[in-house]
Amino acid sequence: MDRHEGEHVEDQTRHEQASPEVQKRVQSSFNLQGLMSHLGAQMTHIGPGRVHIVLPSRPEVTQQHGYVHAGATSAIADSAGGYAALTLFDEDSDVLTVEYKINLLAPASGEHLEAIGTVVKPGRTLTVCQLEVYGVQRSGERKLVANGQQTIIRIDRPGR
């Protein structure tokens, strides 16, 4: 796929909403994550193959220089990708991260961070996702602070 085709797909999926059933299933799973709750992260968009998670900047998620800690930055990126993959699976499926690589491009600062997980290549077993994290200022200015790639494995939902 050339660059322009990727941009076209990106534009199509940027604001598309998942079905109400998928949104409910994904949000319910997210609500069970103790770490996301502990960090204060919230899911703000659930679309087919695309999820956004926002993490407010507060002292509890910073490192010694006042930037959002790389662990918190990575955690929201990981969850955004995993849930983006989950939007494409049926209700009997769940997901686990197999691996991810994240590049920290700039100090993570702003009023909040926004992680965006986007499915690049869906599969029956393995799905590859793109991860992006932006620092968002009160003015709305956005700066890419981290990006990466992730592999997700589809599993049968526990208890099935």
What does this structure look like?
The model is unreliable at 1-10 (pLDDT under 50). The chain is an alpha+beta fold. It has four helices and six strands; from the N terminus they run αααββαββββ.
Total helices: the number is: 4
Number of strands: 6
Mean pLDDT: 92
Note the main sheet: 6 strands, antiparallel
Strand content: 35-45%
Could you tell me how far the N terminus lies from the C terminus, measured between alpha carbons in angstroms? 38 Å
What is the molecular shape? Answer: globular
How do the SSEs run, as a string of H and E? HHHEEHEEEE
Structural class call reads alpha+beta
Report the C-alpha radius of gyration, rounded: 15 Å
Features:
6-stranded antiparallel β-sheet; disordered N terminus; alpha+beta; about 30% helix; single chain; about 160 residues; about 40% strand
Question: Any chance you could write out the topology, listing elements then pairs?
Answer:
Blueprint: H1 3-13, H2 20-31, H3 34-39, E1 42-47, E2 50-56, H4 70-86, E3 93-104, E4 112-121, E5 126-136, E6 142-156
Antiparallel strand pairs: 1-2, 2-4, 3-6, 4-5, 5-6
State the gist of this model.
The chain is of the alpha+beta class. It contains four helices and six strands. The termini are far apart.
